[in-house]
Amino acid sequence: MSNAPGILRITRWLRFRLTLSYVIFFTLLLVIVGFFFRGALNSIQNEQVNEILEEEWGAVRGYLKIQRDSLDRIQAVWAYDHDDPETDLIVERLRSICLIADSDGRVIEVSDTYRRIGIDSPVIIRQLIRANRSTVGIREASDNEKFMVRSGIIIDEKHPVYVAIGRSLSANNAVLNRFTTLYLTLLPIMILGCSLLGWFVSKRALTPVTELAARTEAISGSNLSLRIPLRGAGDELDHLISTFNNMVERLEKSFIQTRQFSTDVSHELRTPLTVIRGQLEVALLTATKEDQYREAMMTALHDVERLSNTVRALLHLSQAESGQLTLQVSEFNLCTLVEDIAEHFRILADAGGVQFSIHMQQPCIISGDRIQIERLVSNLLSNAIKYTPHDGKVGIHVSQNQSDATIIVEDTGRGIPPEAMPHIFDRYYRVPGQQRDPETGLGLGLNFVSWIVRAHKGSIDVDSTVGKGTRFVVKFPITGMDNSTPSEQKETQDV
Ligand code: ADP
User: Fold this and answer.
1) Which residue, by CA, sits nearest to atom 21 of ligand 1?
2) What is the C-alpha to C-alpha distance for residues 127 and 106, in angstroms, rounded to an integer?
3) Measuring from atom 19 of ligand 1, which residue has the nearest CA?
4) In the chain, what is the greatest distance between 2 CA atoms, to the nearest angstrom?
5) 81, pLDDT greater than 60
6) Residues in the ligand 1 pocket, defined by CB under 6 Å
7) Which residue's CA is the closest to the ligand 1 atom numbered 20?
8) Can you give the pTM of this predicted structure?
9) pLDDT one-digit tens code per residue, 396-435
């Protein structure tokens, strides 16, 4: 029933795809996380350098004095206790990366390292002094070394000067580079770990599917009663299993129905054939007079009639289902049609002691397939008479309004139990307990009736009470029927 190696190959392919998606996702995540941490580390380090520069800026304010020399030139003097080695070290550090310029942008003092960074343009210096603004930024020296530079204005004795001090970021960059190297070394190991984990996790996730495949293999045409037990997790797989079990159940039902049908058909055909054969043999052996031959032939003819009706019903149904039956639509008077058929059924009803009545609201012109509607009325009337006991009543009503024509067939017969109601239009369905009733047929009549109703875009309703009777109401739209193959029309559940 199932192709296990195929399913296993699919699950292996599925497992591979699951792992691949997992690995791609984690690689992307790891790369993003790496970038994020590298950025965070960089900004934390820059923050620290910035704080140090702020402290150093305070020291600059304390130690730097501005004065004019004898030629009225601005001079920068670092005033501190030269005997104090600690202060000496601090000022030396400040002056190692430092630029001092006057309000015209003329350089007063510049360290060698600052020269490598590049001396600020006098225009910018003048603008900053005018605006009394300080700046912090990262600048790159000619040899690509990076520096954080803090600049500002110091006003001493009303002489504003531009001062910029800096700190190398090479230590920070070394930390960043070490982080990047370490991360890039670890990345393939982490990806490999993720792949293994993904492969293992997807194997675990797909194990129930593989088990399901193995179990479905055990179910075959001769073993349709087997069901796959639910795992109880209430997840998608449980849903899949219950859907699969439902499908097998439907298949099993259909298998049983078909088997039952084959048995019924052979019984249905064999019994009258045996009877006909017996009657003809007896007639051949015993009949001497013409009347006796005639009577034997009449009985045989009656049985042949029944046989051909059964065969015809089967043929119609298979034609209808395969779409070979095309509606021959014409306009006709439904009342006349019902009156014609009713004559035949009145005789049947009389024979069964059933009171038969017709109620007609003339005229009743509809457009549809005359022969199929005749079959529909015949099926409903034949059922009504068949399932109504002696002294019961069967009636047919035909009426019409502006949009539909309505046919009502009602009886005071045995009725249909409520649990059978949803199935009576199913193919081969007979109410349980009646299967061996000589009155019941093959369970094809109502199925064909519902097909005819659907083909005419009509509707059928049934109302029944056990022991009281049954009422079928069929409605057809008066207009709008074309010649068409009903199988092309959308199946609608009318009942
Ligand atoms: P069948 O050929 O067995 O009559 P149908 O498809 O015509 O098959 O009907 C299906 C089943 O519905 C019947 O076996 C019968 O049990 C029930 N049924 C149909 N019409 C009536 C009715 N008028 N009264 C009681 N039962 C009915």
Assistant:
1) 383
2) 13
3) 383
4) 168
5) yes
6) 383-384, 387, 411, 413-416, 424, 429-431, 434, 440-447, 470
7) 383
8) 0.49
9) 999 998 888 999 999 999 999 999 999 999 877 888 876 5
